[in-house]
Design brief:
The protein has 165 residues and is mainly α. It has six helices and no strands. α3 (51-83) packs antiparallel against α4, α3 runs antiparallel to α5 and α5 packs antiparallel against α6 (131-160). The radius of gyration is 34 Å and the shape is elongated. The model has no long low-confidence stretch (mean pLDDT 85).
């Protein structure tokens, strides 16, 4: 019974496949051939190095190094407090927590310099920039990122040396 009910539909379907009629060709038109032709590649414009960018990078790297020095000083002063902290909640433990907070605060200059370098790199990505300037930005970001990563590891190590609170 199914075959007999499908037969009228098959007859109608055959009408859709007829080749009669005047239809346009699907071959590419002349204008499409012109557009598809390969255009010669334009040379990238030569962009000179930006001395203002170099000065700003040096300033931010200097800020990060000052922050790193402040972090190291705060870390060294916090180690004795952490070593003698005692039980969680004790006076020594609270003093060590305060020292660790000072170490965290000392990281701010380095972290801010990294954030500014990232912002600068993003801003320069949308502008014509020389290859040397792009490499200098990338190197500065990598250098300061390494500083902040090292600071984070050392701070976590100091935190781990305390009893949980």
């Amino acid at each position: 019974m199914r075959a007999s009910s499908a037969l009228p539909f098959l007859a109608l379907l055959g009408g859709c496949a007829s080749a009669g009629g005047d239809f346009p060709s699907l071959a590419p038109r002349a204008v499409e051939r012109e557009l598809a032709a390969e255009r010669p590649a334009r040379a990238a414009p030569v962009v000179p190095d930006d001395p203002a960018l170099a000065a700003r990078l040096a300033e931010l790297i200097g800020q990060a190094r000052q922050g790193d020095a402040a972090f190291e000083a705060a870390l060294e002063s916090a180690r004795p407090a952490a070593a003698g902290a005692g039980a969680a909640g004790s006076e020594g433990w609270i003093a060590a927590q305060m020292q660790i907070s000072r170490v965290e605060a000392a990281r701010v200059a380095t972290v801010n310099a990294l954030a500014e370098l990232d912002r600068l790199g993003i801003a320069r990505a949308g502008q014509p920039t020389s290859a040397a300037d792009r490499a200098a930005v990338n190197a500065a970001v990598a250098d300061v990122q390494a500083m902040t990563d090292r600071q984070h590891e050392r701070l976590e190590s100091l935190r781990a040396s305390l009893s949980p609170g």
